[in-house]
Write a structure and sequence with these properties.
333 residues; alpha/beta; seven-stranded mixed sheet; four-stranded mixed sheet; 12 helices
Length: 333
């Protein structure tokens, strides 16, 4: 049964992805999350961002139920004329005809061009358990040879597809990244309310590694004053190495206006002592000063060297010289 529009605008006045979203059909509603079909016109998207080390992206869903407070991708719902940042975690769009679209579009991919899966929404969020769009995509990719594929997720549901990932890696180059921003379960619960616990994610790293899959850890975003203590990042890297992770990388938090609209009220509630400093440093920009990012990069380089992490995953983040000094917490400047 088709749902009513979420915004007071006739769908006849909408164009492109906004019109398709408005015409989507409701698939399920429960615990403040609703799923909708999305008759996508394309699945493979060319990446034009200069900060990104890959050429193509695939996102099986629009929106993400994990509801991470810092999520940068909330802006993608604005393409569908949905301006409330919370809509991103409550209105999830399931892309249709994924295999057929991908089969047609893979001819555009040239040798050496990497395809990144899950750059804007998690491919193993709860929707995947029912709709299996990610699995369909992996099945299609496994029919091809010579592809370079990166996949990033917080979802331990990826273990369902171990055999398929092994098949895919047999004739293609595959890298899997588990995002783990902190080992602190209580902190993770408020930062990433509906994502699997960090210990379950680290266990997933171990099981993927045991299955022979090239897997690593993303510590991104590093959140100033909350997750950026060098001892905490070192504990994360040490655990990733012990779990069999081959690479690790981290980038600082950045806040687009739509993300800040969700993150700042969260910060004021949970970490009020940091609110004024955040307002100052993110007032006119989405990114922190380069000096902060450089120190994070230097620290991660040092930790990779200390724990014998392979440098293959470093193309996902900046390369910098070894850290010269550490403090109890990273200073913003």
């Amino acid at each position: 049964m088709a749902t009513l529009p979420f915004w007071p605008v006739s769908s006849s006045k909408l164009i492109g992805i906004a019109r398709l979203a408005a015409e989507g059909e409701s698939l399920r509603q429960g615990h403040a999350v609703e799923y909708f079909t999305l008759p996508a016109r394309s699945l493979l998207n060319r990446c034009t961002g200069v900060r990104m080390p890959f050429t193509w992206t695939i996102n099986p869903y629009r929106g993400c139920e994990f509801a991470c407070k810092y999520c940068y991708a909330r802006y993608t719902h604005e393409f569908m004329e949905m301006r409330d940042g919370v809509d991103f975690e409550q209105k999830i769009y399931v892309k249709q005809h994924a295999a057929e679209l991908l089969q047609q579009e893979l001819r555009r991919v040239k040798p050496g061009e990497e395809i990144a899966i899950g750059t804007a929404t998690d491919p193993y969020q709860p929707a995947e358990r029912r709709f299996e769009v990610t699995r369909v995509i992996l099945e299609e990719l496994a029919r091809h040879r010579g592809l370079e594929i990166g996949l990033i997720t917080k979802g331990n549901l990826i273990l369902r597809d171990v055999d398929l990932l092994k098949e895919l890696a047999r004739n293609n180059r595959l890298f899997v990244n588990l995002t783990i921003t902190t080992l602190n379960v209580e902190l993770a619960r408020i930062l990433e309310p509906r994502a699997p616990r960090p210990d379950l994610r680290m266990e997933t790293v171990h099981k993927l590694s045991q299955a022979g899959i090239a897997v690593g850890v993303s510590c991104s975003p590093v959140i100033p004053g909350i997750t950026d203590a060098p001892k905490n990042l070192e504990a994360l890297v040490r655990a990733a190495a012990a779990a069999g992770g081959k690479h690790v990388f981290a980038n600082p938090l950045f806040l687009k206006p739509c993300s800040a609209a969700v993150f700042m009220p969260f910060l004021e509630k949970e970490f009020p002592q940091l609110a004024a400093e955040y307002r100052q440093h993110y007032k006119d920009r989405a990114f922190l000063p380069k000096s902060y990012g450089k120190r994070i990069s230097q620290l991660m380089t040092r930790l990779r060297q200390k724990y014998g992490m392979v440098r293959g995953g470093e193309r996902y983040g900046p390369k910098s010289p070894v850290l010269q000094r550490e403090g109890e917490q990273m200073a913003l400047f």
